[in-house]
Write a structure and sequence with these properties.
Chain A contains eight helices and no strands. With 209 residues, chain A is an all-alpha fold. The radius of gyration of chain A is 20 Å and the shape is elongated. Chain B has 80 residues and is mostly helical. The chains are: A mainly alpha (209), B mainly alpha (80).
Amino acid sequence: MKFSDPTKDTLTEEQLVKDLQAGEMGSFEQLANLYQKKIYTLSFNLTRNITDSQDVTQEVLLILFRKGHTFQGKSAFSSWVYRITINASYMKLRTRKKEPKVSIEDILPTFNQGGFQYEKIQDWSENTESLLFGNETRDIIQKAVDLLPDKEKVVFILRDVEGLSSEKAGNILEISIPAVKSRLHRARLFLRKKLANYFWEYKTRKESK
Amino acid sequence: MICCKECIELLYSYLEGELSAEMETSLEEHFADCPPCIAFVNTYKATTLLCKNTLKSNDIPDTIKIKLKEFVDKNKPDFL
């Protein structure tokens, strides 16, 4: 099944939680089918490591198998799944050697004293179609996301990639809605700047050929 | 007239439709006279879409799918 239909998701989720609580046979496989892609891709986007994401997916599925039937339903089941996936992914990241990250402050737009834009802005938004499925663009985008500080990255993934509301993302991360919004805006500004540099180089390369 | 910096700070709220009508008009008046900001808004939106589509298309590799299936078969509880 696809995860893009929120109504269908909620219905399936509600039924699944009921089945789990009732000890329905087969609900565990259904649980794995419904959530493993969500868990794996969230973990992969956070850790960018196949083995770590497989480990995280297994750890989370095990928690769901063992504790799923005790779920109280105080928040959405999927929020609980997201939260334990994020925590398990962070545990993986903690064991890794820290790589130097670009400060988000350095990459926000620059302005002159009057508050007007200082840099030359290229509008590459209409040229992205042909680049979208290129491997080079994919790599650049994934690397740019990897460079985001953790706080901004997780908000960006939950809101823009997973398509969750600010309320739900705030609930999962236990931060306020204004904090979700400001982190998301900073993440988008950071990524925009990174991609702008890339598209500028791409255009220059193409023109010099 | 508000400056580019203020427009960019308010861009998220503007795109989410969270600004007052008055603020929204101020931003739009600025955009009408500021091609760099128009380019900025377009590329800000395009960034979101590009990143979303790229990251969303990450799937579980087939080899991992097989391992996960084995893991589920081995670890799913037989009864409650």
